[in-house]
Amino acid sequence: MRARGGELWRINDLHPAYDPLHFVLFHPHGEPGWQLDMPHAVVAPVSPPQPPQDDGNEEEGDVEHVAANAGPAQPAQRKKIIAREWACYHMHDRNSASHALFVYGKRLYQEWGVDQYSKVESQRLFYIRNN
Questions:
Q1: 16 touches 33 (CB < 8 A)
Q2: Nearest CA to 14 among 131, 130, 126?
Q3: Residue 32: inside a domain, yes or no?
Q4: Where would you tag: which of 52, 61, 84, 85 has the fewest CB atoms within 10 A of its CB?
Q5: For the segment 59-106, what is each residue's pLDDT rounded down to a tens digit?
Q6: Nearest residue to 100 (alpha-carbon basis) of 34, 26, 31
Q7: 44-56, pLDDT tens digit by residue?
Q8: Residue 24: which residues within 8 A CB-CB, separation 6 or more?
Q9: Closest CA relative to residue 31, chosen from 131, 94, 92, 102
Q10: Nearest Cα to Cα of residue 70 among 99, 95, 49
Q11: 119 in a structural domain
């Protein structure tokens, strides 16, 4: 990117403006791309179905039966989205105009896919190098 003074700036691929500046046709309104610490969307968990209520005369076997069928414990959810998840979300056609730009972009879409893959792999190598 060229600054107003004429000097060139390098934008890191982790910067949220990288994708909108590199793939202008995919981001016509300047929507930011993936960035570090991007939060997951909050989705309400689905509760398991409750057994029918009795008249209050429960036996010990009934209580154990309900506890055994309560379903598996839910694992802790991550609070941040990773670059691979963000790219996978945008790769799928959802019948909206903004996502159709990605899917029907032909060779630019292929370049975008390779760029996203290299972004994910560079982050993996960075993690391996530093941990």
A1: yes
A2: 126
A3: yes
A4: 52
A5: 544 444 444 444 455 555 678 888 888 888 877 766 666 566 776 778
A6: 26
A7: 555 656 666 655 5
A8: none
A9: 102
A10: 49
A11: yes
Q: What is the SS3 assignment for 7?
A: coil
Q: 61 in a domain, yes or no?
A: no
Q: Does residue 8 lie within any of the structural domains?
A: no
Q: Which domain holds residue 120?
A: 13-40+77-131
Structural domains in the chain (count): 1
Q: Can you read off the two tokens belonging to residue 65?
A: 């039966």
Q: Please report, for residues 25, 42, 131, the alpha-carbon distance to residue 14 in angstroms, rounded to integers and kept in the order given.
A: 19, 23, 19
pTM of the model: 0.61
Which residues are CB-contacts of 83 (< 8 A; sequence separation ≥ 6)? 34, 116, 119, 120, 123
Judge whether 42 and 24 are in contact, CB under 8 Å.
Answer: no
Structure-block tokens of residue 22: 């590199």
